[in-house]
Amino acid sequence: MELYAAPLAATAAALRSGERDLAAYVEEVCDRVDALEPGLRALLPEPDRRARLRADAAALARRYPDPAGRPPLYGVPVGVKDIFRVDGFPTRAGSQLPPDLFAGPEAAVVTALKGAGALILGKTVTTEFAAAEPGPTRNPHNPAHTPGGSSSGSAAAVAAGYCPLALGSQTIGSVIRPAAFCGVFGYKPTYGGVPIEGVVPYSPSVDHVGCFTQDAAGLRLAASLLVSDWHDSDDAARPALGIPEGPYLDRATPEGRAALEEQARRLADAGYAVRRVPAFADFDAIERRHRRLSSAEFAAVHADWFARHAALYRPRSATLVREGREVGDEELAAARAGRAALRDELAAAMDAAGIDLWICPPAPGPAPAGLDSTGDPAMNLPWTHAGVPAVTLPAGRAAGGLPLGLQCVARAGADERLLAWAGPLAAALDPA
């Protein structure tokens, strides 16, 4: 499949200045979707997409005739995961349930992006209810492999060059992992750092809104528009890096672990201090706690819908509801309390080791073959449980040619510094 370059920062700048004609750009994007979408299946079908985008672009051009007054995302098409409500689009959450069940005010982040001048390319495919049942999307680098999930369509659409920016969500590993599988940048903020209003919930205690781009500068631009109370960082100092040694890292495949060692070597050669720090000695307990918490809250979210429409749920989603019902109030309260304890534990470990970022695999290895599973999110789970910010940096290729990534994780609230560091780190990892 032919993939197209669509870096957000450069594309947005060219559209704002008029260097790139908006009407012509919309036609290019629609031609690309028409050519690739039958094989990729990253978007929900929309018969009049081209006509709608033409009209939206024309209205935007009339509103902002002077390049000097154009907003930061003027004319940038954005893919929106189909658990986010968007005015004028039904929300299905990757399911067969009646869309009116999910109706309501537009997601706050969608409204924010529209206010910044973005155009809505369309809804992107999600796994059912952003959980485990895959959608039809293929990996753009090899259609026999999963693109990851649950933000499958958003990651694939950005990788294919449909849109320079797409929204996703993460409850375990649904931004960081598909970004790695599809060879793009992905960002999951500090818990609560990006408003989640208007998004169909999975597990409110651990749901995060995130995004995908092809470039580090674009990720930083998007975050500046999405993160509440953003204060840009110009931190030029190299962060000290820590590798979380122990049972967590044992979940990586040999290929994934070898990739991490090569990535760490490249970073050390570029002048970064890389230290090995024991972490997650109780990883199995953390994993169980997170899964019990998320399944319990999933069951609560779906209680009324499942009571009325159980027959429309696919098997893994129905199992998740039933498993979640088994979690008692005391266990649920303890699981929620465990999130803050883990966050404090990670901060103390970073202080003791003198590190600024953790580096680790974004997935056990490259995207697995087949479309029946979106892959194992274990490498993302503890960071999501703690609610700390993370990014995926593209970082080379596996032996079979599929993309590899590096996951970088900062302290809670250090999103601005994390994204300031992402560009230089990505450049150091680039084998070119």
Based on the model shown, name its key terms.
single chain, 432 residues, alpha/beta
Question: In words, what does this structure look like?
Answer:
The protein has 14 helices and ten strands. It is of the alpha/beta class. The protein has a ten-stranded mixed β-sheet, with helices on both faces. The longest helix is centred in the C-terminal third of the chain and has 25 residues, at 329-353. 52% of the residues are buried.
Order of helices and strands: HHHEHEHEHEEHEHEHHHHEHEEH
Beta content: 5-15%
Structural class of the helices, strands and pairings?
A: alpha/beta
Give the CA-based shape. Answer: globular
* Count of extended strands: 10
* Main sheet record: 10 strands, mixed
User: What's the average pLDDT?
Assistant: 97
> What is the topology, as strand order, of the major beta sheet?
2-1-3-5-4-9-10-8-6-7
How widely separated are the two ends? 22 Å
DSSP helical segment count: 14
Q: Identify low-pLDDT runs.
A: none
- What's the gyration radius in Å? 20 Å
Helix fraction bin: 40-55%
Please give the structural blueprint.
Layout: H1 8-17, H2 22-40, H3 49-63, E1 77-81, H4 108-115, E2 119-124, H5 152-160, E3 165-170, H6 176-182, E4 185-188, E5 208-213, H7 216-226, E6 241-245, H8 254-269, E7 274-278, H9 283-301, H10 303-309, H11 315-324, H12 329-353, E8 357-360, H13 381-386, E9 390-397, E10 403-409, H14 415-429
Parallel strand pairs: 1-2, 1-3, 6-7, 6-8
Antiparallel strand pairs: 3-5, 4-5, 4-9, 8-10, 9-10
Helix pairs in contact: 2-3, 7-14, 9-11, 9-12
